[in-house]
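Predict the 3D structure for this chain.
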Amino acid sequence: MLAAGQTEFIAAASDATKKKLFKPIFQLDIIDKYYAVTQEELKALTTQADKLSYDIMAKKSMLEEHQHHVEIYATKSSQWSVNRQTQIIELEERKGTIKVIVDPLLKQRVKELELKLATIPEKVDVSEEIQKLESDKMYLKVLYGENAEILDESNRLVGTECKYCGAEINLKNLNKHRGELIKRTDEIIYNATVIDSKLTTLREKQNKYDALLEERSEIQEELDSVQRILFQEEAVASSQQLIKDSIDKSIRELKESSNPYEQDVAYHEKKANATAKELEELEAQLSKITKEIDLCGFLKWTFSREGVTAFIIERAFGRLESLANRYLSMISTEGFQIEIKPQRELKTKAMKEEIEIRVKLGKRIIPYWGLSDGQRHRVNVALLIAVNRLCRDRGINSFNFLLLDEVLDLSLADKGQEDVIRLMRWMLQELHNIIVISHRNEISKDFDFLIEVQRGKDEISRIVSSIVLTTEEPATTHRKRSKRNAL
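Done. Predicted structure below.
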């Protein structure tokens, strides 16, 4: 429905009002909504990307720190290994200079002297035996003297006791006892001879042992000297062996020792690998978010005034301008052209919404308010009908009729009214009905139906009459009307 007061609505309205009108027609409000959603999403993604970038910088710094520590400890580890190998080589060289040698001839000589010394008694002393034998010899000598004295004075034995058997000696048994005394004296002489022989043997033995003892002393002295030299050599060899064993132990400990820096290298390598993996994941997230930002930025631009909105507006306003000029050419013969500028490019190359409707006559721009009332009304009608058609094209308006309230009553001369009615009849190709409300009875001849309405005293409007203005038969007319649109 287009009312009389709305005829100048499009051309004379402010930019804000025009935007309010055209936004739902072009569905720009949906695009604006998408733009706002995309802008918020872009803001959230940008915040997330900034946080990821900060985290990536922190992880990179941490990774560089761990890698730096790996290099430091790897260098120290290498130096430690080189130093250890150098120490091992030095100890091996030092070990090679140590000689653990004992003269085998000394050991052999010691054994020979010990064997020789073992054959010589350590101590030979027969003095006690000699003394005992000499005592026995002295005792026998005394016995012999006594016996010899008794034998010299054997007659004196009569009346005495025999010192051997204890019997009393008388003349009768004197010879017997004297014979026994001689026998015992011979035994004493024999025993004394044996003792002398033993004494001779012992003295010879003593002399021999004395010679051996002197030899033993010489052997012992030589043995002590050789053993002393051997001990000195063995002490030196033992000392050298201890040094050599200590060197071997040091070499073994060096070879078995673990590198104290390998643990640090392994620790920082592990941390570096973990940090690198985290960094890779963060960079992957940032790459994904960056792609989303690029897509979101593209969508934001697409939903912006420079994007799809500009395309829609350019095409839609181009279509509106084309329709308006088409309809204007049907109701005006003055050659007016409507020019619609939906946006204005700023110095920053950004686009500003500024819907400007201008009227051109040839190359000359005529201000809207510089037109006559009739000319403005024709322009307004053309724009209103063009907007109606554009709404139907875009599915905003699905009605198949047009209602015009006193649109023909304002500022239109008879010729202008006829032109507009001719345009309406032409529009019946697309619409089922066009209903015109007017106070001018003279225009009823151009319509198929006439409904007269009057307002009563009770301020209620009622239908007074309904007239079919066609000259055809009613039945035929009705049938024809069912096949074509009605005005």
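The chain has eleven helices and eight strands.
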